[in-house]
User: What shape does this take?
Amino acid sequence: MGGGQPPPAPRPAGRPVRWPAARHNAAQHMRAAFELGRSADPIVAIATAGGRGAVGIVRASGRDLTPLVEAVCARVLEPRRATLLPFVGDDGAALDRGIAIHFPAPHSYTGEDVLELQAHGGPVLLQLLLARCLGALQRAFPSARLAQPGEFTERAFLNDKLDLAQAEAVADLIDAGTEAAARSAARSLAGEFSREIATLARETIELRTLVEATLDFPEEEVDFLEQAHAHERLAAIDAAVQAALARARQGVLLRDGLNVVIAGQPNVGKSSLLNALAGAELAIVTPIPGTTRDRIGQTIQIEGVPLHVVDTAGLRADEQAADEVERIGIGRSWQAIAAADAVIFLHDLTRAGDAASRAADAEIAARLPAGVPVLEVFNKLDAAAPGALQRLAPDALTLSARTGDGLDALRRALLHAAGWQAAPEGVTIARARHVEALRRTRTHLSEARAHAAQGAAALELLAEELRLAHQALAEITGEFGSEDLLGEIFGRFCIGK
Assistant: This one.
């Protein structure tokens, strides 16, 4: 700890311990090691976005900010009370007049002393105020410095103000691209997802305790597992984890969205479909084959789920391309298709009876990547000849990008292909690592159920699988994890948060 500062503030009285003491202590050791790697010296940063604005905020955090308050505010501030006053520069003159709020530890966002200065939002003024705060801090604590990305939230995590899932939700709330994503991130930040994980972890530990008791007292005639209905409880935990995994997948969709590529032959209406889905003229539309030379993308919302839709160059053989530019565009189209979460394979309904067109579609279909959902969609419904629909499968999607007919059905099909279930109000934001941790939990629970079926002969293996299941759950909230993981998470935050 630099700067000769007093030791960290103790854990607030009455704050519940989320995990048993042994696990919590292990987490504390990990956190302490991480904290030593990233200094706990006083930090300061501009907390608002760059550019001019009505209000700009400079935020500082540290074990003791009394010298900073005295230097910049020239008075003692009442805790957690907004005070209008001049911000004093080095020469004693006022840099600006604004609002100062002092949050003494531990009742602050970071768990340390926090000072927020709300000034006018001019970039030059904020830089002057930042330099003034940093200079005042460094005179009292030579190791004071500018904050790194995500360091304020990192300290909130290290000081038990947030668990890791909640800390991630802070960034997700800031980055939310849809209303549904913002609401789901807010629920995660409020602790809904963390409480669900904590409940699963507690039930897993209780079951493991029963197994350990049976191992410790083998001479007892009492079957602890049978008496406590351990098999039924294990099945219930497994089912609850499965449900949590399904909701987490929904949360990942809300956060990351779905990458959708529109593919097909030239002049089937790919650009028109992109424009229709986006509600704007994004792509140039002409009857000339090869008009679209490169990928054009747009993010749209369907029931709160962000879809990143990409229009690609028309697919045809290299020898049919008009020039080298179109050949490069076709190559990039196949690259986009390979990275897609779903593909809209667009056909021209007016050419449904054309043998050459069907052969070209068959060649494209043969090259589509396996495992990627493909929606077969027939465009130009408004111009199709009578009887054209009779040649299609009964469940074929038909639409007119020009008139909008059939677009709603396509939107529903895209959500179905993504695995979305229309219940956004019950979903909390999640990340891919949460899904992976829950998958590993399910794997260990499945192994545990298999060992439990073998009875007393496999109790040690059962206990070990339960331990691994709990460890996987604990990684979600940060009770277990690596320094590399924490650095990766907080390094993606903006400076000042």
